[in-house]
Amino acid sequence: MRVGVIGGGQLARMMIPAAIELGVELRVLAEAEGMSAAIAAERVGDYTDTETVLAFAREVDVVTFDHEHVPQDVLHALVDAGVPVHPGPDALRYAQDKLLMREGLSQLGLPVPDWARIETPAELDAFIADHGGAAVVKTPRGGYDGKGVRVVHSAAEVAEWFATIAEDGNAGALLVEELVEFRRELAQLVARRPSGEVAAWPLVETVQVGGVCSEVIAPAPRSAGRLADVAADVAISIAEGLGVTGVLAVELFETTDDRVLVNELAMRPHNSGHWSMDGSTTSQFEQHLRAVLDLPLGGTGCHEEWAVMVNVLGGPVEGTLADRYAEAFEGHPTVKIHNYGKAPRPGRKVGHVTAIGSNLDDAVYEARAAAAVFQD
Asked: What is the mean pLDDT of the segment spanning 190-201?
């Protein structure tokens, strides 16, 4: 079995151990030399070029991704050539375009913030006036980790976006949403195979710093019962309703008025699921490979009562993460360390650590303290 991964980033890198354990041959089409998954990259090429991608796909049994940016015409060319693609283009388009995502989720009757497609500053100002004087504006494509997202009080604050947005039929269009008052952010991961089987991990709580995920707690504290059931039902409904295959991450708001609203989608392994590498019976990376190969899915239970993942953001000012291993291993022998093979850079996710155990406070302390070893 040969799985081709388009994109040479950290997610492709973290699929490698799972592929080795399953006896799956993993091949990666990387965008450039020296990326995180360079250890498995047999080809470097332009993922927006149809012929390059088709040539890569001829060497594998199924194609999947570590990001959502492959153009629709390239995806459809793969499908037309008979290549199994998971997730397929009809599903992936909802992760590529936030306006389509909101339309699709609304059509499925799923809970989302109040939103609108806006094409003029006047429309944005009217929406802001109707929603308490503030709103969240998003560019439909390309935004992640807080990029392409602004909280605004007038259209003047995104004037340059109106001047520059012009992609795929969304010329001049932006997404505006109500500014949600939320208690916390949550994430629900599920996996779905082409034949229809679905498996869900426990609901997790995520902590964001500057628009970037900093910590994940699994399971989310105070989530057992109705909240966990609602989140799993929402994510499974999205996977089935949009035809997602592979791992799906659904980012959620738990609001101050007791709603659960869908914020974002990712149709691939996701930062909020990295805890599963050490904390779950089946990691999201193994599950993703099982799903795209249409193999029976693995169990999603936890090894311990709690798992806490803390991202290493930026890394040391000088040297590499490996230079700090001795200190981290000696001080925190129960914590697992994952290095993405990236050069340190302010704000960049260069690795993560995970602590598991029966006491949440202890797990949080160990994970934070170990991650701090790699920060200056």
From this structure: 97
